[in-house]
Amino acid sequence: MMSADQTQTTLRSKLEALECHFTWILDPSKISLLLHHDKLVEIHTEGNSWLGHIYNLRGFIQCKLDSTEDALSFFLQAAEAFRQVRGADEGPWLVVNYGNLAWLHHLMGDQAESEAYLSKVDALKKKYPTPSEDELHAELYAEKAWTLMMLDIERELVSDYFQKAIRMQPDMVEWNTSHVIGLASAFIRGSREMEADILDKMRDAKEQDPENLYLAAYDIRLRAKEGQDVKDEAHELAKRVPINPVSSYSAMRAILYVYRTCGLIDEAIDLAAKAVENNPEERYLKKFAALTLKWKIIFFSESGVDESMIDRAVSLHKEVISLYPDSSFVEEMDLANIYAKSKGRQNEAKCLFQELLERKLEPAEKQVLYYHYARYMRINCKNCRESIKYNMKAAAIPIKSLYRENSIKALVRIKNKSQNCREIDEFLENLHEP
User: Which residues contact 38 (CB under 8 A, 6 or more apart)?
Assistant: First the structure.
């Protein structure tokens, strides 16, 4: 007979062998959890084919934020959502959900219930076997891909998992749509080379999913990046986005980014402002409106910035920061950068950046802040020495991100323009990939 310690060890090993959120996402930062909590709350759920996956992820996030009762509620909602979306009481799509519940009950101290869910996982795997032991079921590949994509981690695996899922079940339109959006997003953000056949994949996806506005938006952005004139298409797509509370969070966000990619910033500002006017209670619309003003002031102000627009942006950013008390760190940095664009608010920019630098932050937050502060030092303060220092600090944090990549690129540019950059050379030579 096994001792209590042996039983616990056996249970733990079974839990660690599961395919679920608790084994996929090993060490999430608190800021990431809070950001994605707020993001998921605002995604429209009615008719959403990813509803079960959304509730599974929300349950995991609540557990990691020490709200186990809320986590249990979301996991149970996920199971019900899968039954409604899939039209069946059980199926392989519940393997991840039952795995999450096994972990949650273990963490809550209910080992008997944890064992019960482990048994349910085993029963499902026997009833719905995979072609080989080293392969997952298509449903697991799809949920794993979607989850990693939503959390923006292990991006190199997302496409691989989606392709495996689609190869096994090619009739799942939403999987193919999300896969193509993921490929397009990675290219647009500059984190991935453009695949030779991405435009063909996008065309095929649109034929399968013609009413998906988010997909249509990515198609336009992709072709705009390729140099095509798609401004008329952008205006036409904007007319299809209803501006009301039941509109998809994703659809509004998507069309604003289409406008930005096409250089139609004034149109983006007007659309976001109209949405806020029609729905003043929706905080995410105010967040989008603040974002469009930031784009105008930070990235599209070669001929100067209207101080009244800066005042408007400052006021809106302060409101957004108050509406997102747990996840507005990016907006605080944006506010500092907006201050820096105003001749009369340089001291406010300096003070806010200093306040953020003195704040107790997680490594991921520090990396983002150091990158932004390095740009501020170079562009606004003309202090190359401090800019180099903070780009190095950002790059030295062993977290893969676009901020780290951009800091390294900035250091390389500075090195190439200067004759005496031994310090940068030595730093880059000793820098290791995270």
Answer: 324, 326, 327
Radius of gyration of the chain (CA): 24
Secondary structure class of 201 (helix, strand, coil): helix
Q: How far apart are CA 416 and CA 290, in angstroms?
A: 36
User: Within its chain, how far is the Cα of 396 from the centroid?
Assistant: 22
Contact 390, 411 (CB under 8 A): no
Q: How many CA atoms lie within 13 A of 427 on its CB side?
A: 21
Give me the amino acid identity at 44.
H
Which residues contact residue 291 at a Cβ distance below 8 angstroms, ignoring those fewer than 6 apart? 256, 272
pLDDT digits (tens, 9 = 90+) for 353-389: 999 999 999 998 999 999 999 999 999 999 999 999 9
Would you call 157 helix, strand, or coil by DSSP? helix
pTM of whole model > 0.85? Answer: yes
Can you state the angle between helices 346-358 and 363-379, rounded to 10 degrees? 150
- The alpha helices in 108-197, defined as continuous H runs, are 111-127, 138-151, 155-168, 173-188
